[in-house]
Amino acid sequence: MHTVIARADQPESLPQHPWLRRLPLSSPTLPPAQHTNLYVIGHGELLLVDPGTPDEAENQRALAVLDELADEGHRVRGILLSHHHFDHTSGLSLLRRRLDVPVYAHAVTAQHLHPLGQSVDRLLDEGDVLPFAPQGLRVLHTPGHAAGHVCLLDRASRSLIIGDMAASIGTILIETTDGGDMRLYIQSLRRLQTLAHEDELRLWPAHGASVAPGAALLAAYIQHRAMREEKVMAALSRGTASLLDLVPLAYDDKPDVDRFLAARAILAHLYKLRDEGYAEEAAPGLWSPRRAY
Questions:
Q1: Contact 161/202 with Cβ under 8 angstroms?
Q2: Parent domain of 32
Q3: Model confidence, pTM
Q4: For residues 204 and 21, is the Cβ–Cβ distance under 8 A?
Q5: pLDDT digits 0-9 by tens, 8-44
Q6: In this structure, what DSSP letter does residue 201 have?
Q7: Which of 29, 26, 51 is CA-nearest to residue 39?
Q8: Could you tell me if 189 and 281 lie in one domain?
Q9: What are the pLDDT digits (tens) for 79-121?
Q10: Are 137 and 157 in contact (CB under 8 A)?
């Protein structure tokens, strides 16, 4: 059983780990979540993680917090993007212009941002260590939700800043049209679960308050994805069907689900099942079982 100790819409920090601060900002994210967390990490030199709101007033609120920290002797030295999605990057232009600091991201994230006129100053990869916590922040490349998704391990506070790997409010959509990959996502979840279990880590997600023990939330996500995959395969076993035809059967536990959103989620499972040899696209938009699940 995992525990959330703070409200999703309220700032959060722990007295024993004052260098790790969560500032939720109203953002255009997937409901029921309404905020993307801007993380302010460090002592003296600060790193911002995921400037995810295009709202001028919300960004000004964040800058006011940073001004207060500046009065205490702290200065922002960089902005890090966990991945390229709009609800994680839409405040980048304003904050970068005001703060004049370098941007950190994975190479795949940089490729997504380049056509939008955004550049990345330092490319991140697995194992990099950034000097913004007492023992540094270790970069973990965790593809699946996005190909360039990264998490940050803060061993000093036994914390994982996990972006969109999991959320303590709402859910995580694997969007195949934007590089999402359910197979890789499950692999990344399992990797983080093992790490969180071994080191008893607290999770700090992009949406919602922090969660401890972190391994319990990740286990729940893995279990939920396995349950949904079984329902998708059971629905598919009835014969060739379209995505929308599969929704009522694969989501019989959620009769009020948004059919089109559910269809997008089902497609991610079908691609995974296809890659594993259990399903195939018999004709454009029509899916069939390939062999027994």
A1: no
A2: 3-225
A3: 0.95
A4: no
A5: 899 999 999 999 999 999 999 988 999 999 999 999 9
A6: P
A7: 51
A8: no
A9: 999 999 999 999 999 999 999 999 999 999 999 999 999 999 9
A10: no
The count of residues in the chain is 293
Q: Which tokens go with 194?
A: 């093992």
DSSP conformational letter for 177: G
Give the H/E segment covering residue 290: none
Q: Tell me how far apart the alpha carbons of residues 237 and 134 are, in angstroms, rounded to a whole number.
A: 53
End-to-end CA distance of the chain: 30
Six token digits for residue 228: 């949904």
Whether the link from the prior residue into 248 is cis, omega within 30° of 0, is no
If you ran DSSP here, which 8-state letter would residue 253 be given?
T
Q: Clarify whether residues 152 and 275 are in a common domain.
A: no
Q: How far apart are CA 67 and CA 205, in angstroms?
A: 24
Residue 101's SS3 state is coil
Q: Note whether 52 and 196 are same-domain residues.
A: yes
What are the strands of the beta sheet with 103-106, ordered from one edge? 12-14, 17-26, 35-43, 45-49, 75-80, 103-106, 122-124
Instruction: Give residue for tokens 């959103």.
Output: 261
Same domain, 108 and 245: no
CA separation, residue 137 to residues 80, 96, 144, 150, 237 (Å): 11, 21, 21, 12, 46
Report the distance separating Cα 232 and Cα 254, nearest Å. Answer: 13
In a shared domain, residues 207 and 98? yes
Report the DSSP beta bridge partners of residue 4: 211
Q: State how far Cα 174 lies from the chain centre.
A: 10
Amino acid at 50: D
